Amino acid sequence: MCGIAGEIAFNGRTASREPVLAMMGAMTSRGPDGRGIWDEAGWVALGHQRLSIIDLSSAGAQPMLDDGGLALTFNGCIYNYKELRRELEPEFTFRTTSDTEVILKAYRKWGDFVHHLVGMFAIALFDPRRQEVLLVRDRLGIKPVYVSHLPGKLRFASTLPALVASGGVDTSLDEVALHHYLSWHSIVPAPRTILRGVQKLPAATIRTVRADGTWQDREYWRPDYTRDASRSGWSAADWQDAVRDALRTAVRRRMVADVPVGVLLSGGLDSSLLVALLAEEGQHGLSTFSIGFDGAGGDAGNEFAYSDLVAREFGTRHERLHVSTSEFAPSIDGAVGAMSEPMASHDVTAFHLLCRTVSEQVKVVQCGQGADEVFAGYAYHQPLAAAGRQDALRTFSASFVDHSHEDLMGILEPEWFCGSDVSRKVLAAHLETPGADTALDAVLRLDTHLLMVDDPVKRLDNMSMAWGIEARVPFLDHELVELAAACPPGLKASQDGKGILKDLGRQMLPAAIIDRPKGYFPVPALRHLEEPFISMVRDALHAPEAKQRGLFRPAYIDGLLADPNIQRTPVNSNVLWQFALLEMWLQRHGVG
After folding, report:
1. Is the peptide bond before 202 cis (omega within 30 degrees of 0)?
2. DSSP characters for 304-346?
3. Is 181 helix (H, G, I), strand (E, B) or coil?
4. CA dihedral 156, 157, 163, 167 (to 10 degrees)
5. pLDDT tens-digit series, residues 245-280
6. Predicted TM-score (pTM) above 0.85
7. Which of 18, 40, 230, 260 shows its CA 20 to 30 Å from the CA of 586?
8. Do the beta carbons of residue 367 and residue 271 sit within 8 Å?
9. In the structure, how many helices (H) and strands (E) does the chain have?
10. 44-50 and 2-9: which strand pairing?
11. Closest CA to 467 of 50, 53, 29, 1
12. Is residue 542 a contact partner of residue 313, using CB atoms and an 8 Å limit?
């Protein structure tokens, strides 16, 4: 785990070290254990900020070179690197015990190496023979790659603020991205970001960049959400057994490390299953961590009763972090500063605070992100289980979209309003693509491969890496996702969502964990705004920068401020907080 950065100069130009060093300097929290830069090719400069997890010696430092001149900077973890190494050892000599060197040798042997990798990764690889740079993002987009196209060059980094720090990047707002942000509870999917001058490499994509400035993207993985004839005779019990085996493998894979591994334990089904499976693998004295807050607006602020129950059941070393409102409010600025992009989800600051505590004890954690998207755990999935295939867009929009295109006409100032419903067009294009049998199949594909990448996945990466924590997500193991995609949607959506996981949980967990309302790191203070948060929101929306930017119609914002808790999104988030968070982020990072 780390931060990667680089500059690629075109048509005989020379890449500059200074922008790369500036990007690395903006990502020291992602890689506090070392740094390196390589620019011997002239037109390519690669940088790396290191967080040591595998091969803690200096031999594992990056950028890493091989004898043939390949150069690599890499963020992430290859969970099957030991198996790949054994396969490659008859042909190659290894100088380190790192997974980084395995990537170099895999590319040397197979060329199209990415299909051999099991893990999360963002890779930049320079091939001197082909005079190409490959930018590669893992199948589920767990590790980020931001890019900026500038005159005669391309820069890339693990975070958006790092690219901005390199200089010369267009930091004006993208109106289409703004439409997405306000439509889908702050999600702006790849390739866009909220800034015009910065894009994201989509998940499961290889970008080949050539010395003449041309480049090409190739999507290398996307499972079908259709029923496999080879499993047509499977019973519900057969599917349950297969999911249990695949999840067990996913958890086992994510134990690989030369440092201890803990778990972020919310007390919900997903993280509790991880603790149970780690216990099965013989992980005794496992460190687990939970966070809770003061209640507000009639909502409880913690789920400690459930996380304590799981901790007792499996004998973990459990730490509870309770954050009072007086402590929570000053922490928001730090969380906003750690966001690569504005994220209005109420639990972002919760993850930021929890990871601060975790970083004092462990460097690696497993967590339950992705289970709801992969196994149909959200309330908005329920109506889709009964919807016709042709009704996927209408049904999904009715239960997911925060503000319709018509609503935005009355919210945004005219110069920021898109003339057409660009967000609906994106949804329609993805939902109507062949390869999904039912409406729910189509939405789970959309969730897993487009929206999730820029919601819980990005949130977890940003907040954990702000404290030098490597967060691993077993529910996003690509083989488990492939299996879930083929699973009959009724098995996933049953029992009000995640039915197949609930049945698995009944074999492994206390009953109270299964049959309870869904919680997930509740942060009542940002659902039901009171002081000091109302003043924080008002200050952000009335700041000189906000007035100069003029995104929102003043009458609309004044109406929200007059009754801060009246408007909710379909997923019960506070609408006013969504608008304020955008301004907080733009002001904190000095962009837009």
Report:
1. no
2. HHHHHHHHHHHT-EEEEEEE-HHHHGGGHHHHHHH-SS----T
3. helix
4. -60
5. 999 999 999 988 777 889 999 999 999 999 999 999
6. yes
7. 18
8. yes
9. 27, 17
10. antiparallel
11. 29
12. no
Q: 51 near 100, Cβ under 8 Å?
A: no
Pairing relationship of beta strands 364-366 and 287-293 according to DSSP bridges: unpaired
CA–CA separation, 73 vs 8, rounded Å?
13
Beta strands at 261-264 and 364-366: parallel, antiparallel or unpaired: parallel
Tokens representing 106 are 């895999």
Phi-psi region of 520 (alpha: psi -120 to 50; beta: other; left: phi over 0): left
Q: Is 90 exceeded by the pLDDT of residue 327?
A: no
For residue 488, give the nearest of 366, 376, 404, 359 by alpha carbon: 376
The count of other CB atoms within 10 Å of the CB of residue 178 is 22
What does DSSP assign to residue 254?
T
Extract the tokens encoding 161: 């603020």
Q: Which strand ranges, in their side-by-side order, compose the sheet holding 317-323?
A: 317-323, 287-293, 261-264, 364-366, 470-472
Per-residue model confidence as pLDDT tens digits over 129-187 = 999 999 999 999 999 999 999 999 999 999 999 999 999 999 999 999 999 999 999 99
Q: Which stretches of 230-303 are DSSP H helices?
A: 236-253, 269-280
Sheet holding 146-150, edge to edge: 34-38, 44-50, 2-9, 153-157, 146-150, 199-200
What is the spatial distance between Cα 210 and Cα 97, in angstroms, rounded to a whole number?
Answer: 31
Can you tell me the distance from the alpha carbon of 91 to that of 146, in angstroms, rounded to the nearest whole number? 35
Instruction: Give the pLDDT score at 55.
Output: 54
Cα Rg of the chain, angstroms: 23
CA–CA gap between residue 96 and residue 531 (Å, rounded): 54
